[in-house]
Model the fold of this input.
Amino acid sequence: MVLTKLYFLPVVIFVTIPTTFLITYSVSVWDGHVNPELPYISDTGTFSPESCIFGQFLNIAAFVLSICVYLRYLEVKHYPELSGSGLAISPKLNRATFILGQLSCLGLDLVANFQETNVPAMHMVGANLLFVIGTIHFLLQVYISRKMPELVPKNLVVIRAVLVLICAVTTLITVPTTLLAIYEYKGPKDDRIKKWTPEDGGYDLHLVSAAAEWILTLAYCLLILTFAPEFYNLELVEPIIRYKRRKTSTKTQY
Done:
């Protein structure tokens, strides 16, 4: 069996993640769980029923993203045959990039399943894996893309580089301003922090960090979308199953 139309996978992620956040934002504002003025993304998925939508669709996105990371790993691994150039990308670099990519997928999964009010430590671990490790992963992808001119047009490399720069800058803005905003927050230490007001302290820093987080998320999704043109020319052939005690291999039909 040959799987085609792999380019739909990045498109699915690009559509799923922003749509999920728009839905959870709308529901959380409608139910009065957050203020409409730039809440943190995680705040829009903290309480039921929006937390159910948040978790379900981000789990799907994490799964599809994990597949995309694996497909990219295979593309880079087989670059000499795919391009006809005979030039190989460093296997160690490719494996390291693959591992970082899978860690960022794990981060998205943790963010989806551990709400910040229930298990804040795990939620923060997931957020850092997703955005910090994810940004490093995409930075390496830009470097690898420069080494694959036969498959990745130069203008696409430039677009990825710009988006990675945006991710890096917004990450550097989001992390410290969030910590400072929480430090300066003087309001009630309960669920009302999801409805931050100017009187609570740290409000301006909160708006800056929240805006940077939304921009970071959009840039991240756009980065994933840039792999759709590459996947357009790829096909995935059925996997080969081998018995450890035998040298022969059999193909399993799905």
Remarks:
- The chain has one domain: 2-233.
- The chain has a mean pLDDT of 88.
- The CA atoms of residues 10 and 225 lie 5 Å apart.
